[in-house]
Amino acid sequence: MARLPVHTVETAPEAAKPRVEAALKANGFIPNLIGVLANAPEALAFYQEVGKLNAANSLTPGEVEVVQIIAAKTNECGFCVAGHTKIATLKKLLSEKGVQASRNLNPAEFDDAKLAALAAFTQAVMAKKGAVSDAELQAFLDAGYNKQQSVEVVMGVALATLCNYTNNLAQTDINPELRDYA
């Protein structure tokens, strides 16, 4: 059971209700993360707006999911690991091997060298709080990414950190719709 309220459309603060309703409409259910973020309407707005920006960046949708799964796994957020595994799997954004490599935090397991470089770079960004070495940045660039995308990885990690830390704080239960991907 979560340590913070998990709001529904009916119980959410007025400022959060439209965003909770939008999540229900988009997903067919209210992810418990949304219900928890509704405790702070500005945090929910931040999550949804930065999420849109993150989805519109120059990384492919599969690359975005690599960053999100690695961040969630690194931050020990089972809820977000499950959610992003479901997205990557059902939308076929990553191969099964790519999903497992991300979940295992093991770039060597990827069947795609470019995704392996992204995974390694994401892990370095997280481990070093952004202060990656010149060699780590260069390996990312040499894999076919660009400097804009290095900042987009940081943006993805920042978004994931809000979600992961909020779930860890709240001890958010994984929705039944996500449990098969936990």
Give a description of the structure.
This protein is 63% helix and 0% strand. With 182 residues, the chain is mostly helical. The chain has a domain at 60-170: AhpD-like (Up-down Bundle). It is globular and about 50 Å long. It starts with 16 loop residues before the first helix and ends in a 12-residue tail after the last helix. The mean pLDDT is 98.
Give the key terms.
182 residues, AhpD-like, single chain, 9 helices, CMD-like, Carboxymuconolactone decarboxylase-like domain-containing protein, globular, mainly alpha
Task: Break the fold down into its secondary structure elements and pairings.
Layout: H1 17-27, H2 32-37, H3 41-55, H4 61-74, H5 78-90, H6 96-103, H7 113-127, H8 134-142, H9 147-170
Helix pairs in contact: 3-9, 4-5, 4-6, 4-7, 4-9, 7-8, 7-9
Summarize this entry quickly.
Pfam families: CMD. With 182 residues, this protein is mostly helical.
* Proportion in β-strands: under 5%
Counting DSSP H or I runs of 4 or more residues, the number of helices is 9
Strand segment tally: 0
Rg over alpha carbons: 16 Å
Task: Summarize the amount of helix as a percent range.
Answer: 55-70%
Briefly note the structural class of the backbone: mainly alpha
The quaternary structure here is: single chain
